[in-house]
Amino acid sequence: MKKVLKGIGFVFGSLIGLIILLALGLYMKSRLEFSHTYNVNVESASIPTDATSIDHGKHLATILCMECHSQDLGGDTNWMALGALGGVKAPNLTNGKYGIAGQLSNTDLVRILRHGVKPDGTSVFVMPANDFYHLSDSDLGDLIAYLRSVPSVDRGDDKPDVQMTFIGNVMYGAGVFGNLLRASTIDQTNRPATPQPGISIEYGKYLVNINGCHDCHGVQLSGGKSGDPQSPPAPNLTPGGDLKNWSEADFLKTLRTGSTPSGDLLEPRFMPWPWKGQMTDDELKAIWMYLHSLPPLPTTTSSTG
Ligand code: HEC
Ligand code: HEC
Questions:
Q1: CB of 270 closer than 6 A to ligand 2?
Q2: What residues are in contact with ligand 1 under a 6 Å CB criterion?
């Protein structure tokens, strides 16, 4: 009997030992990925100074940046609070107290936005540089021009942007959230072609790319899930899903009001329609044209990171 108990104790002890070893391994894997540095060639950007370009930069910041960095770009220290896993803050992008604008050159901004690489060479976490990678030279220039002109906001704290706990790192190492270190997912050696603005399938595709519809709705837009564990699945946007029965007007209304033709109200915390819905009619029509040109795919729900 004693022998059997001893045996059970041994198995149990080994099991706990194994679990601890596995957790430590996953923790170290996560830390290694976070500290990996990237060497990228950064193009010099030409930054316009005229009011029309700055205005257009504000439009881009509204649809692309404010959902996380706040309407005044003063950041959000509580942007993603994941309890025992830790938290992530969206830093203050202005020149005010705790703001980072003063520490970043225009080249730094191009490196962060297009390549997902911070001044210390490591990757941004969560921040969708994999989408901004698609920004044309002129859109990127306008965006940076606006960032340089935005009024200072005094808000924030001294804590690091990413505050992951041991458990958070173990889960990240296990791949629970997908790959959110964006620099590793960007093709750093090629620049994508950029189409002329207009109501066209090509420009619609460009807008879908810079807006990151793929990040949640899936690589093929046939349905997916964002890295946010609390988010519901993002529906199929190809004509294989609900959108096959929508009109262009239904699509515009859904993005502007969050209310779908079937009467569902889209949760703004998970589907950023209050920001995406501020695109112009022409921009939304181009997106609609592109979505409608896609092959009708069956709905998928896999995580897309
Ligand atoms: C989905 C949320 C999200 C969106 C959208 C977003 N950001 Fe961020 N941003 C973050 C987070 C989170 C960080 C902190 C990332 C880190 O430190 O790894 C960050 C960091 C930054 C940084 C600082 C990087 C550094 O050196 O530490 C800059 C600059 C920035 N964002 C600019 C922008 C601009 C400009 C846009 C719009 C074109 C934008 N962000 C859109 C979440 C977002
Ligand atoms: C951060 C993740 C995220 C991004 C980015 C995103 N969506 Fe969504 N979207 C969702 C989620 C989640 C839902 C479902 C929300 C709900 O059920 O409350 C949704 C719902 C929708 C719906 C309603 C579909 C239906 O069948 O009812 C449309 C249309 C839509 N998104 C279009 C877009 C377009 C176009 C873009 C890019 C401009 C985009 N979304 C970007 C997460 C996202």
A1: yes
A2: 61, 64-65, 67-69, 79, 88, 90-91, 93, 100, 104, 109, 112-113, 118-119, 124-128, 132, 143, 147, 161-162
The C-alpha atoms of residue 117 and residue 22 are separated, in whole angstroms, by 29
- Reported as a single tens digit per residue, the pLDDT across 247-266 is 999 999 999 999 999 999 99
Q: Distance (Å, rounded) from C-alpha 222 to C-alpha 84?
A: 32
Spacing, Cα 247 to ligand 1 middle (Å): 34
Burial (0-12, 13-18, 19+ Cβ within 10 Å), 65: buried
CA 20 to ligand 1 centroid distance, Å: 34
Q: Give the integer Cα–Cα distance in Å for 36 and 95.
A: 29
User: What pLDDT shows up at residue 82?
Assistant: 85
Summarize the confidence of residues 77-100 as an average pLDDT.
94
Q: Could you tell me the CA-to-CA distances from 107 to 46, 137, 275 in Å, in that order?
A: 10, 13, 27
pLDDT tens-place string over residues 167-215: 999 999 999 888 999 999 999 999 999 999 999 999 999 999 999 999 9
263 exposed, middle or buried (CB, 10 Å; 0-12, 13-18, 19+)?
exposed
User: Rounded to whole angstroms, how far apart are CA atoms 76 and 88?
Assistant: 9
What is the distance in A from the centroid of ligand 2 to the CA of 222?
11
Contacting residues for 262 by C-beta, under 8 A, at least 6 apart: 242
Amino acid at 29: K
